[in-house]
Please model this.
Amino acid sequence: MDDAELLQRLRGGDEGAFTELVRRYHPALVRLARYYVGSDASAEDVAQETWIAVMRGVDRFEGRSSFKTWLLHICANRARTIGVRESRTIPVAVDDAGPTVLAQRFDQAGVWRDPPVPFTEGVDSRLDDQELLATVRTAIIGLGEPQRTVVTLRDVQGLSTEEVAQLTGLSEGNVRVVLHRGRAKVRDAVETAMREATT
Amino acid sequence: MRLLPPPLVCRQAVELMSDYVDGGLSRRDRHRLERHLANCDACTEYLAQLRATIAASGRVELEDLSPEVLDGLVDLYRLFRADEETP
Model:
């Protein structure tokens, strides 16, 4: 069942629809809130308040954006307010020093000395799908901020660069830089897993 | 006569790939990258890996929802509904 249908049911007071939406989005809300606030407990509170706002506001939601976008915006706004109250510094500093791929993998002319271990054709045989997803998951969770939030919103949640910029308070240019670096690290992790599976 | 931009080396090519996947490169950079990819198997593989990684990211479940948290929120919803229905 898609979000629009669940939303329709929620308007009619369907508890099952509420439960399904919570299942779908609560972890993403906690994660987004954690970007702004100082503790897991505080992030959990923000996510809970977001659901209360949804219960109260669902009849007024006009559907000009998707439900997911609306939900994440409520959460980001709330979390930002709490973050300011906690005097928390948001990790906006973009680490763009140095190359994305380790310099020693290229020769002096900038050509691959240690080319990527081919894995796109070998995923089926060497790394099964569950292992691939587990590797990607661990790599994303292991990213520093703001990479983790940016990669999560863009590639896991599938939001646009513009939406990610709005939700994180980063410029679109910074989102692209952060995304580029985060994705490169996740790819590195998959390559490393492939190397280990081969040897 | 317009000069062609200098060709990319691999080290530069990888830095453009994330924007390339998202359709965010200028025409000039896109052409430079595509010209490089046409002659470089290693960078073509890198790009394919980046795409595969992004596709896999879209299928990842980052966190499980604990039953306690879910129950707590459903209880909250019931309270809200009960409150709504009280005249």
Observations:
- Chain A has nine helices and no strands.
